[in-house]
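Good morning,

Attaching, inline, the backbone tokens for the sequence recovery test we're adding to the shared suite. The designed sequence is right after.
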């Protein structure tokens, strides 16, 4: 006899490959198999016979972990919220018991658990139960790092930075803000630093003690230096951060100045995939997220940028970021200053080759063969294609503009921003475009359709940006002194100076209380009602003066 099993679920027989025995075994049965039908046809030399159809019914029983908790390892700063979620299978209803280091957590009886990250290494898991049994999840390891703090008294100089220009009403978490220091700040001098390269610079949140990550972009001790600071929360025009410097005991830069922590926060906002400051002028170009440095391409030359130095793309320049998995939602942005003579496509970011409907995407200015100054987001999957565009004349050439496109593949849409404002236009994106392939800056991936002009601060971020985030990203660069108020530069270092004229001496000091004594070693007493400048008659017994700073 010969046997052949068939799947009859669709109503028509579908032969099951390799199933030619008297017994059919179906592996990995699931609840979705309920209602499936199978039959066997048996043949020999004299003819064939067909079995009755066998129908499958799957009865749910003991619980099992359909979706495990994630991530299984994580490192956060103390107090950072961390959420774990489990999805069970089996027969409902379910009960949940979460444990921390093996001990049940009181009140933690839901499918999700949110905890403030505790200090040290801790372990979390959940046991799911129903009437038929129980099933444990995997164990997640959560490492909590102590909140880094500083003692303001250890630093000679202090500056308060208030975001006086932010009035949009939305809280922006982990917002990268540009801080500019140098000749633009009254009272500031590079000689005040304890380290010639700014290694003693520290930033804190509004408390004045909790440190926050920063990265020095460009250092110009004879001019203005640029620093990116990750602001924990920016919600109102009274929010502030603090800058400290002048501590000879703290001249070693902290790890987050180079490890990407400014751009890849552990929680609170979507991290960046790529951040090119475009200051190098030659390969390699550093990625401040420490993930995708541009090691290959044709390097753009150095040129003055919107912040320090930018890359000058000559019509044959591009940077290859490598394979970047962008996920289902991402935001592309770059400051561009397009050559006034540029025609046809001027590419910023692209992971597709030229050709309508090519797999992937490209963000550029000017539609193909035109000088219409439209922002264009081309997308395709190799079959379907679309070009979402803004109106003609959106981007003027010969000027710096911040271009952004927020792409949501789940919704099949793209939103355009220019200089922080939402720009209306065709917003359709092909949802099945390639998003985990080679990513270029300045050209399509077949080395065509190059940018002619300068690019600065080129970024790729996970998730889609709100219009308020896009606006603040524009303001912190283009109108920094309006967006941020640099006030209250103070120093605990006080110089008491004196200028003599005839029989009078005039003492001056910036802050504190003037004191005097008959001997250098004291004791000193406050000079009644003394304010700077203070005249002192150069007659009578000798006196010694000092200033007490509280």
């Amino acid at each position: 006899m010969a046997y052949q099993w068939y799947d009859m679920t669709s109503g028509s027989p579908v032969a099951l490959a390799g199933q030619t025995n008297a017994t059919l075994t179906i592996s990995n049965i699931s609840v979705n198999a309920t209602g499936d039908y199978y039959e066997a046809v048996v043949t020999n030399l004299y003819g064939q016979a067909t079995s009755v159809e066998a129908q499958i019914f799957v009865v749910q029983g003991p619980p099992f972990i359909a979706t495990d908790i994630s991530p299984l390892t994580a490192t956060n700063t103390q107090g950072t919220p961390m959420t774990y979620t489990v999805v069970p299978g089996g027969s409902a209803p379910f009960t949940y018991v979460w444990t921390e280091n093996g001990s049940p957590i009181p009140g933690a009886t839901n499918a999700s658990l949110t905890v403030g990250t505790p200090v040290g290494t801790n372990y979390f898991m959940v046991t799911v139960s129903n009437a038929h049994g129980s099933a444990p999840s995997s164990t997640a390891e959560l490492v909590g790092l102590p909140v880094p703090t500083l003692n303001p008294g250890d630093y000679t100089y202090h500056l308060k930075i208030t975001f006086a220009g932010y009035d949009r009403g939305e809280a922006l978490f982990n917002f990268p803000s540009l801080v500019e220091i140098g000749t633009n700040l009254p009272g500031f001098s590079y000689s005040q630093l304890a380290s010639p390269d700014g290694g003693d610079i520290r930033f804190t949140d509004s408390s004045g003690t909790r440190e926050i990550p920063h990265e020095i972009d460009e250092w110009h001790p004879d001019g203005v230096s640029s620093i990116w600071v990750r602001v924990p929360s920016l919600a109102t025009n009274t929010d502030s951060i603090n800058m400290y410097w002048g501590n000879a005991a703290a001249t070693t830069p902290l790890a987050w100045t180079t490890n990407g922590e400014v751009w890849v926060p552990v929680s609170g906002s979507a991290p960046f995939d790529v951040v090119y400051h475009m200051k190098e002028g030659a390969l390699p170009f550093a990625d401040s997220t420490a993930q995708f440095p541009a090691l290959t391409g044709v390097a753009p030359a150095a040129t003055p940028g919107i912040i320090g130095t930018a890359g000058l793309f000559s019509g044959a320049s591009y940077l290859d970021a490598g394979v970047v998995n962008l996920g289902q939602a991402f935001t592309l942005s770059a400051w561009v200053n397009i050559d006034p003579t540029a025609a046809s496509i001027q590419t910023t970011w692209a992971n597709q080759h030229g050709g309508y409907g090519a797999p992937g995407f490209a963000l550029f200015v000017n539609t193909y063969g035109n000088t219409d100054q439209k922002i264009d987001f081309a997308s395709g999957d190799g079959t379907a294609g679309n070009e979402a565009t803004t109106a003609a004349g959106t981007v003027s050439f010969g000027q710096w503009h911040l271009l952004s496109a927020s792409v949501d593949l789940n919704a099949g849409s793209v939103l355009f921003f220019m200089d922080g404002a939402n720009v209306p236009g065709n917003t359709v994106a092909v949802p099945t475009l390639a998003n985990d392939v080679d990513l270029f800056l300045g050209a399509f991936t077949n080395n065509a359709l190059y940018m002619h002009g300068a690019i600065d601060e080129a970024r790729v971020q996970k998730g889609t940006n709100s219009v308020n985030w896009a606006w603040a990203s524009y303001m912190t660069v283009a109108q920094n002194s309006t967006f941020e108020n640099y006030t209250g530069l103070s120093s605990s270092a006080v110089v008491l100076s004196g200028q003599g004229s005839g029989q009078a001496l005039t003492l001056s000091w910036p802050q504190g209380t003037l004191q005097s004594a008959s001997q250098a070693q004291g004791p000193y007493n406050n000079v009644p009602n003394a304010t700077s400048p203070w005249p002192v008659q150069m007659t009578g017994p000798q006196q010694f003066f000092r200033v007490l700073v509280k």
